[in-house]
Write a structure and sequence with these properties.
By secondary structure, the protein is an alpha+beta fold. It has ten helices and seven strands. It folds into two domains: 178 residues, no CATH class; 67 residues. 43% of the residues lie in helices and 18% in strands. α4 packs antiparallel against α5. It has a five-stranded mixed barrel with strand order 1-2-3-5-4, surrounded by four helices.
Length: 290
């Protein structure tokens, strides 16, 4: 199932913090590792081509707003371009994977004459650019799992230490069962409170990430979790599955050694904000509205 890209776009809201969807062809894309270099590149492009045309003129007029919108994030890439003729900017680890000429959908907010992108979806590549591709209910579920793991680790760790201390120094003032009960009760109170409050702290109805995923066309965005679908993780799973399926041919020499893809030779942190939503749909982990 694919997420289509309609032709029409809504008008921009008056409030600068309001999220809305824009759709169109990505054009005049510039990507740099530092905000200053990105702004210099925009200035160089507009000075070389002039600002008489509507395309380069839109970026030139929004340059000051782009500078105000971008903020420093370690190990990321900064981009600016036009979507349906509107200046859009932002920062994603893996922004260099955006393809000019592709029709995309973007969840943005207004910042003066520029638009700040919170997520970009490219149906042609099947990829999603987002810094947090997980809804609030999925966040709460992950925190409950974390609380359970912490409870198990802390309880068994503390119980083992007490047992070792008792064996080393002999029986103390309190019995084994009494001490274990206090350890169990203390851990249950701490991590039980963490698990029970996850819905209140994580799964709020007015969560911007829910709106972001919902605007992009995902059904039930609160429960979407694409964190295991980073493009490099998906490529690695496919690579290992191919090796496993052909291990007999590889061992016998009937198949030449398999070279890993260029993506697998790069740092996993370089593209950490790019997710293969199409694979998630194929695996039944996400659904989209037609």
């Amino acid at each position: 199932m694919k997420i289509g890209v309609p032709e029409s776009n809504p008008s921009m809201p008056q409030r600068e913090d309001a999220l809305f969807l824009i759709e169109g062809v990505l054009d005049r894309l510039s990507v740099e590792a530092e905000p200053d270099r990105l702004l210099s590149r925009i200035a160089h492009r507009t000075s070389n081509h002039g600002t008489d045309g509507p395309i380069d003129g839109a970026l030139a007029q929004a340059a000051s707003d782009i500078e105000r919108t971008l903020y420093f994030v370690e190990d990321t890439q900064y981009f600016a371009g036009l979507i349906d003729g509107r200046p859009v900017c932002g920062e994603f680890a893996g922004a260099d994977k955006l393809k000019p000429g592709h029709r995309v959908k973007a969840t943005v907010s207004r910042s003066g004459n520029a638009l700040r992108a919170y997520a970009i979806l490219d149906p042609q590549q099947g990829w999603l650019w987002s810094r947090h591709p997980r809804g609030s209910a999925a966040d709460a579920k992950a925190e409950r799992k974390l609380a359970l793991w912490l409870f198990c680790c802390c309880y068994f760790g503390m119980a083992s230490l007490f047992g070792l201390a008792s064996w080393w120094s002999g029986p103390g003032q309190y019995g084994w069962v009494e001490v274990q009960s206090w350890i169990l009760l203390g851990n249950a109170i701490v991590f039980g409170a963490m698990a029970l409050s996850a819905n209140y702290r994580r799964d709020r109805p007015a969560q911007s990430q829910n709106w972001t995923l919902g605007l992009l066309g995902f059904a039930d965005p609160r429960r979407i979790d694409l964190t295991s679908y980073r493009i490099q993780d998906v490529a690695m799973r496919k690579h290992l599955a191919f090796i496993h399926a052909n291990k007999q041919a590889l061992r016998s020499g009937r198949m030449p050694p398999i070279d890993s893809a260029q993506l697998l030779r790069e740092s996993s942190d370089r593209h950490r904000d790019v997710y293969d939503y199409r694979q998630a749909i194929a695996d039944g982990k996400a659904t989209v509205r037609r």
